[in-house]
Design goal:
The complex is a heterodimer of chains A (199) and B (288). Chain A contains 6 helices and 9 strands; from the N terminus they run E-H-E-H-E-E-E-H-E-H-E-H-E-E-H. By secondary structure, chain A is α/β, with parallel strands linked by helices. Chain A has one domain: Fe-S hydro-lyase, tartrate dehydratase beta-type, catalytic domain (fumarase, Alpha-Beta Barrel), CATH 3.20.130. In chain A, helix 2 packs across helix 3 and helix 3 (91-98) packs parallel to helix 4. Chain B is α+β, with helices and mostly antiparallel strands and 288 residues long. Chain B has 2 domains: 3-21 and 63-145 and 273-287; 147-268, no CATH class. Chain B has helices at residues 3-20, 24-36, 40-59, 83-100, 146-149, 162-177, 195-204, 217-232, and strands at residues 69-76, 126-131, 136-144, 153-157, 185-193, 246-256, 261-268, 275-280, 285-287. Chain B has a 5-stranded mixed sheet with strand order 2-1-3-8-9. A 4-stranded mixed sheet of chain B has the order 4-7-5-6. The radius of gyration of chain B is 19 Å and the shape is globular. The chains are: A alpha/beta (199), B alpha+beta (288). At the A-B interface, helix 5 and helix 6 of A face helix 3, helix 6 and helix 8 of B.
């Protein structure tokens, strides 16, 4: 399959052209956010406080990297994706309010996230879990960091990346959900598996 | 160097080795999976995994950013030693490793979520003690990330559920976990003992190389059947579909109460990191 290359800021039109199963390489800006950063971002929203960075039209990366400080420069050592489903409850509100165009994680997300992506015109993509050095290789610079008080893993890291991927589009803006389809497929094979195990 | 300093030094080296280099059984199994995988997405995932393993080793950096919570399996030999001091030495090794490798600082208070910053804290690193009459002390470092660890499961089955019940619980646990624990995984199973022992055995099962079957033929057969069953689900690498969902299934057992059948399942991601060393009485160390 031919891979698609995109650069942030990603327009709504470009994001809507992405289809489930597409392979994607992304260049530009990613910002990491996990459980605690999502919670805090929504708390800021309720309190009317601005976020340290804008997520609009860039990529939100479910990741808690290993980052090392060399002199005054931060360097990303390892930066694979974290399990996206932990963010499922807060992601729809995050997407609607902060408008990230691409979400990168692993393991899949649910129907509420898919609905929010359909509304704003965005996609959820997965990067190979654990392939953290491959991911770090695509990171060209750490542009900025905020909320370091949450710890290295939970902070917001603004990363400049080149050809970050291969990403697989797992939820597209039409609501097609790769993980949901695969889960249904696996479920349909269950009786055959049971039978082979004489259950 | 006194003996406890030897232990600290060995602990540090084992953490470093484990987070950077995968054991050969896992590498070989992943390479074989890539050669045999037919699904395009499955192959793409395995290619990224193999590229990542090589890159981590070449650069001398951790394979995965989730360097986990440190679990040390310590099998004492004949030499009488202070467990308190061994525990302190392994905690010191963990603190040093966090800075020098570096590791991600993952250890937080369960309620306040405050990070200790050095991967130690009340109750961790976890040390699992065992005893032997060997001429050496054996230490294994097994750093384990949360993506797979969070998919651990326990069930108290009825004795009448028998081996069929065990199989069903394992298959259901793997299916429910889907792509979450970063497959292709290794599945550790603990059957018997008590609820806590079954869980402990399911983790200890991960210490055995994959492909090395349990010495009891009945349990060896269970391991093989479950591996075939798990791979027939088609969950595949990263849960994106394919023929390799698990690289191996290892089971350990203990006798249990006549009214009980406890079963623990511990899923290990493809980055099945571990490293062992033997420290002899005269202080010389052999890294396995």
């Amino acid at each position: 399959m031919a891979a698609i290359r995109l650069r942030t800021p990603v327009s709504e039109a470009d994001a809507r052209r992405l289809s489930m199963n597409d392979h994607l390489f992304l260049s530009g800006v990613l910002i990491t956010a996990r459980d605690m950063a999502h919670q805090r971002a929504l708390q800021y929203l309720r309190e009317g406080k601005p976020l340290p960075f804008s997520f609009e039209n860039i990529a939100l990366f479910h990741c808690g990297p290993i980052v090392e400080k060399k002199g005054s420069e931060w360097r990303v050592v390892a930066a694979g994706p974290t399990t996206s489903s932990r963010m499922e409850l807060v992601e729809p509100a995050f997407i609607r309010n902060f408008q990230p165009r691409i979400i990168i994680g692993k393991g899949g997300m649910g129907p509420e996230t898919a609905q929010a992506l359909r509304e704003i015109g965005g996609a959820y993509c997965v990067f190979t879990g654990g392939a953290a050095v491959l991911a770090a290789k695509a990171v060209k610079a750490v542009r900025d960091v905020a909320w370091l008080d949450l710890g290295m893993a939970e902070a917001l890291w603004m990363l400049e990346v080149k050809d970050f991927g291969p990403l697989v589009v797992a939820i597209d803006s039409e609501g097609n959900n790769l993980h949901a389809r695969l889960a249904a497929l696996v479920e349909s094979r269950k009786s055959k598996v049971y039978k082979a195990l004489r259950l | 160097m006194d003996f406890y300093e030897e232990i600290e030094e060995a602990g540090l080296r084992l953490i470093r080795k484990s987070v950077i280099e995968l054991p050969s059984d896992i590498r070989e199994a992943l390479t074989k999976a890539y050669r045999t995988e037919k699904e395009e997405d499955g192959r793409l995932q395995l290619k990224a995994i193999l590229d990542n393993i090589k890159l981590a080793e070449r650069l001398g950096v951790p394979i995965c950013q989730d360097t986990g919570i440190l679990y040390f399996y310590v099998r004492l030999g004949k030499k009488p030693l202070s467990l308190v001091r061994i525990g302190e030495a392994l905690a010191a090794a963990t603190r040093k490793a966090t800075v020098s490798i570096p590791l991600r600082s993952n250890a937080v208070h369960p309620f306040s979520r405050k990070n200790s910053g050095d991967n130690t804290g009340f109750g961790i690193p976890i040390v699992d003690w065992d005893a032997s009459e060997d001429e050496y002390l054996e230490i294994t470092a097994l750093p384990k990330g949360a993506g797979s660890e969070n998919r651990s499961a326990f069930r108290s089955l009825l004795p009448s559920d028998g081996i069929a019940g065990v199989k069903e619980f394992v298959i259901d646990t793997v299916i429910k976990a889907g792509g979450g624990p970063c497959p292709p995984s290794v599945v550790g199973i603990g059957v018997g003992g008590s609820p806590d022992l079954a869980m402990k055995l399911s983790k200890r099962a991960l210490l055995r190389p994959i492909g090395l079957r349990h010495q009891d033929p009945e349990i060896a057969k269970l391991e093989e059947e479950l591996l075939a069953g798990i791979n027939a689900t088609g969950i595949g690498p990263s849960g994106l579909g394919g023929s390799t969902t698990s690289l191996g299934v290892n089971a350990e057992i203990a006798f249990c109460h006549t009214a009980s059948l406890p079963v623990g399942v511990n899923i290990q991601c493809w980055a099945a990191r571990k490293a062992s060393a033997r420290i002899y009485e005269d202080g010389h160390v052999i890294y396995m």
